[in-house]
Specification:
mainly alpha; about 0% strand; disordered N terminus; disordered C terminus
Length: about 140
Amino acid sequence: MPPPAPPQEYASVAKHAVESPAPSSNPDIRLAEQGDAFAQYRLGRFYAKQDGLEAPESVHWYRKAFDGLRRLAEDGNGEAMHVLGVMYAFGRGVPKDKDQARRWLTQATEHEVTAARHVLVSLGNRPTATVVRDPQAFASH
């Protein structure tokens, strides 16, 4: 007679352990420690998935990522705008703020970041089109 199957919760823990790299082998750690805001955000997600959204390590990396992402977004980086929008939409390292989420996600869609549209829709919004004030000037491009 075969041994009984382990409870489902143990199976998912075992699967998670295989799929998630050990923190020391995670290549984002070196980049994050060097100040890469995107790597810091990815580490925040890594720890949130592993230990929960409020895990101290997750919150630590999300907060570290915020300033760098904001600088990049203000300099016109569409991906940074998208990530900031997600952070505000779901309260990752910052208080939830749907107005800020909409602001950054809308700007990201204007920079052709498709994933930002999906988040806006999930928030119950549709991306707004940019209003063209001078159609002839637009047509000449």
